[in-house]
Design brief:
It contains 7 helices and 6 strands, in the order ααββααβββααβα. It is α/β, with parallel strands linked by helices and 246 residues long. It has a single domain, classed as Chloramphenicol Acetyltransferase, CATH 3.30.559.30. It has a 6-stranded mixed beta sheet. A hairpin with a 2-residue loop joins strand 4 and strand 5. Helix 2 crosses helix 3 and helix 2 crosses helix 5. It is globular, with a radius of gyration of 18 Å.
Length: 246
């Protein structure tokens, strides 16, 4: 996740996070291919006639994404996910417009997991005039709202640390299994950072070395997980990539 990995290879933070997640899920016992829900900020330009720049409030888009878990090679995995994400038009915003505004049929899909990388929210950043308040804002989602996914995974960079929160359906997963998944995810992120470091040390041009894939036809508990135990060098590499790709 070095600067060389995000720059020369044209890899963004979401690519790296999802590649590591795919490898963790495969080891955890997930099938070789699964559909997940990806969430993005929803403010990507939809054309010259639609401009949300003059609006305020929380925009978001949720869309289905096929996560391939079968790749055994790290570079192959990263290349597949990177290319698949680049083929999603307007960061998935069109899916919601098509499904909910046109009443089109056949667009519902089953997904057991959702993933959302919120970006970097470091307090005191010279590039930001806003920062997160420290007060408790209470429950964000009504407890009686039916949970749409068995697992909801959110990533965010706060105060120099990469943090994950995961909400899960207790009837489908045990806390011990969730802890196992998060431990695997941490391990894969560390391995991804090492691979990027090795690519840079070899003087490789990851943009050429990473394979290009052909286009493919109720109640929950929450557990917080932080990567603060990562070695300083690894977390610096990860954060450096996020500052470029977020």
């Amino acid at each position: 996740m070095l600067e060389e990995g995000t720059g020369a290879a044209h890899v963004e933070a979401n690519d790296l996070l999802l590649a590591a997640l795919a490898r963790a899920l495969r080891t955890w016992g997930a099938p070789e291919s699964c559909v997940i829900t990806l969430e993005s900020h929803g403010r990507d330009a939809l054309g010259e006639t639609v401009d949300g720049g003059g609006t305020i409030g929380w925009f978001t888009s949720l869309f289905p994404f096929k996560l391939e878990l079968a790749a055994s090679d790290t570079r192959e995995q990263l290349g597949q996910i990177r290319d698949a994400l680049r083929r999603v038009p307007h960061s998935g915003a069109g899916y919601g417009l098509l499904r909910y505004l046109t009443q089109a049929e056949g667009l519902a899909y089953p997904a057991a997991l959702s993933f959302n990388y919120l970006g970097r929210f470091d307090a005191g950043s010279s590039e930001q005039s806003w920062e997160l308040a420290g007060e408790n804002m209470g429950t964000q989602v009504a407890p009686e709202l039916p949970r749409q996914h068995d697992l909801d995974l959110t990533a965010i960079v706060l105060a120099g640390q990469l943090n994950f929160s995961i909400a899960f359906r207790p009837g489908r997963h045990r806390r011990e299994r969730i802890s196992e998944l998060l431990a695997l995810y941490k391990s894969e992120l560390v391995a991804m950072a090492k691979h990027c470091h090795d690519w840079a040390s070899e003087g490789a041009a990851p943009g050429r070395d990473i394979p290009q894939t052909a286009p493919a036809g109720g109640d929950g508990l929450s557990r917080e997980f932080t990567l603060s135990e990562l070695p300083a060098d690894d977390i610096d590499r990860i954060l450096q990539s996020f500052s470029d790709g977020a």
